[in-house]
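Minutes, structural biology subgroup

Action item carried over from last meeting: produce the structure token record for DUF4440 domain-containing protein (Agromyces seonyuensis). EB confirmed the sequence was re-checked against the source entry. Recorded below for completeness.
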Amino acid sequence: MSDDDEFLGWLDTEYTEAERELLSGDARARAAIWSRTDPVSVLGAWRNGLGRAGVVEAFEEIARSFTDCREFAFDLIAHDVIGDMAYTVGYERFTTSIDGSPRTLTLRVTQVYRREDGAWRVAHRHADST
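Output recorded by EB:
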């Protein structure tokens, strides 16, 4: 399996499941797929964070707003894998409840990843609403 195939497989499984769990109110899986090595950053649609502790805190805070993710899709526009680094550009489309109100949203998302101890981890995220 090529590095590209391995990375895309990870996006379709572990990454997608972590996002669904976050959008259902549980930040643990998202925190697990994020880098443990600084620099780590998020410029999010709802919260920003810098450093491992800062991004995990941001994830925990926004997870408290979400419940009942019914749909999640990551529409990949562009990506590349170069050794132990990768990036993606795309749209996250999801249906969830935010503070008790059902919502369907689309976010523009750019992320940077690095392979740590053989596993892909997110190192940076920038997201905003369309």
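Discussion: The chain has one domain: 3-129.
Next step: EB to file the record with the rest of the batch.
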